[in-house]
């Protein structure tokens, strides 16, 4: 079996990269050790959100959210795309100032927002605690069921006829022009895309990726309990804490009427077990914002691992001189569903040697090599 390109990983990032390369006319083999949309893609919340931790994060997430909005009409009901918007909640004056700053940054990036005072916030989401200082509504943010969206990209996107998916194919190593499978098979190709999330580091050990564990909880069906994905403004601080365990309020209304509750962040563990003390902290935190939350029935809890880089931005570009023809699309941390489509566009632009829609430099793999042997 030969193809123009081999993509390793059928998570949302690998699927998006394969779909983009296939749409450009390349034949693409996608190899995954397990199934489509497993890994972090199955574990996450699927919130499609513009984030502003850095100008590069804002540029990438905004670009990618626009790509999702453009793709949305083609998606199926089972992909569960809903433009529910994000409601950033300010608990006090300090967070209200953060809402104003976020609004300013978003305005500069042409991201539409609406500032809500305390009364408007209460009207918008009556289940929220009162009084809160106010909120910032980002109406064009959305949610999607990422594992299904990954399957759509591989099996229904424009160039899907050019894509061959091979599941149960664990990749053991990669050299220029060749992918070696655990079965002993060698797949030869001119172009290799490493998009296997956290496990990318096993194939390229120098990649600066650390696991960041997260807990999630889903409730029974409570249709209309909340209507927007609601996050506390303190979430941004918590999301980028680099040590210890942190929790923040993040609640999502699923199209089924269930409430998906996040999120926690812990470094330096690969233990999949649900940790009750962390989960309790998460629920307690959420209950400050949704006081009736403890009366809802929880159906399931689980954990997942984000692939975090030192600066919180993904690695998108050539793997380096020693691995000619090998490309990386990994390290998307807690935003990989959102940024998958833009990642694929940026990767394809570099591969095809055409200009990209946004500056590529902040995401290049070699941005860390300057520090090689020291920081990274
Ligand atoms: C708790 C939590 C909440 C999140 N919430 C959000 C959110 O709301 N919004 C958002 O945008 N992002 C969110 N994320 C982040 C997002 O889920 C990830 O960034 C994204 O799913 C990463 O996709 P991926 O394709 O890079 O990796 P993965 O989904 O991990 O896929 C990697 C694939 O590679 C395969 N693989 C691994 N090793 C090999 C190998 N050696 N050979 C072959 N195949 C291999 C795996 O089987 C897997 O299918 C969240 C993540 C977590 C953990």
TrEMBL record:
Q: Which InterPro entries match?
A: FAD-dep_OxRdtase, FAD/NAD-bd_sf
Q: Name one GO cellular component term.
A: cytoplasm
- Signal peptide stretch: none
Alphabetically list the UniProt keywords: Oxidoreductase
The segment(s) forming the FAD dependent oxidoreductase domain are 4-349
At the top level, the lineage of the source is Bacteria
One family from Pfam that matches here is DAO
- Work out whether the entry's keyword set contains Oxidoreductase: yes
UniProt GO molecular function: oxidoreductase activity
State what protein this is by name. Answer: D-amino-acid oxidase
- Organism, by scientific name, is Trinickia soli
